[in-house]
Amino acid sequence: MDKEQTDRKSSLLAALERCENPYTLAQIEALLKKSDMLQPIGDLARTYPFLLQLHSTRDLSLKTRLKNKKDNPLSRYLEYTAAPVFFLSLLMLVITAAIINNFSFDEQGFQINTFIAKLAALFGILWLAYLADFFVILFLASRTRSRIAQSAFVPKLLSLIFPPTGIGLRHLETPERTWLPYHHWSKCNEGLFNRLKEQFSIPMIVIALLIIPVLLIEWQFYDQVENWLNTDLSFVLDMVQGFIWLAFAFEFILLVSITNDKFTYIKKNWIDLLIILLPFVSFIRTLRIVKVARLTHLARGYKLRALLMKARQGLIFASFFYRLLAIKPDFQLRKLKKKLDQNRTEREIIEEDLVKMSLWLRQRKKKK
């Protein structure tokens, strides 16, 4: 054992003497019991020292209001247009919410009222502005030979198909940054993601629960409420559902843009994606693929279930989650303990694979 390893061991023993955390001690004890089994990994680490780099790669820092370089026309253009593009994308998302949640149908099929027609025309005009912005960027990049990051350019290009996805787009020259209201240019990392997720959690609970009275009115009390309000109740309910859809779509698009592991986020939040896609089921009516009434009730029923699940997800993330479940703390603790056990099992499987790899390399070395 060399001096460096001896000093490291002495330092760890001193830290162990000072440690009074029973959870930490239990983990150390469990790890020491596997010391003999993990010895091949220790031998492997002498050849591949990167296996000993156990520090966390998570970036939990919150870096906002960052300054970008303005050393070329493209950089200056991106700086000046970041806020307008964000709010333009948000406005187009609002228009989309109004359009897809306010279609009307009769026995003849699909109909569009004057209000929706005007919104569609406005969407088209705004899309032309969005398209012009894209061509200006291409022109400036070509003229100044500025280097555009592919990881940021591809989402920008795809946003031409559906401009509301322009919310949270990355900086084309510094792709690890995005522009957000109040935060301005911010680093896209786990710290920013967690902050936004926490800020969304409570409002999304309230918004998710709005669907319950809406669906109760639609299913059971429509005539009574319409007579009581003496107004076009269908339009009011459509606008409420449009607002709910808008909130979920905005949160989903923004958080997908912020996270660096988009596939994992989408996989974990597939319910959110279904909530966003459900209104588009209305278009199937025009194709007459399935019976209208059955499809509508199926979509509404699933939307209720999905939104309730979303509300629960928000509660889990919210800081007051444990106070709400104080009457059954054991249930939550056991659930979290189960997740820890699953994580530990996965780690043990990986360690077993490393042991097998070490033994295989040792045998191959002997044959040589």
TrEMBL record:
Tell me where on the tree of life, at the top rank, the source sits.
Answer: Bacteria
Membrane topology, as annotated, equals: Multi-pass membrane protein
Keyword Transmembrane helix on entry = yes
Q: List keywords of the entry alphabetically.
A: Ion channel, Ion transport, Membrane, Transmembrane, Transmembrane helix, Transport
InterPro entries in the cross-refs: Volt_channel_dom_sf
GO annotation, cellular component aspect: membrane
Bilayer-spanning residue ranges: 77-100, 120-141, 202-222, 242-258
| Localisation per UniProt entry | Membrane
Put simply, this protein is called Voltage-gated potassium channel
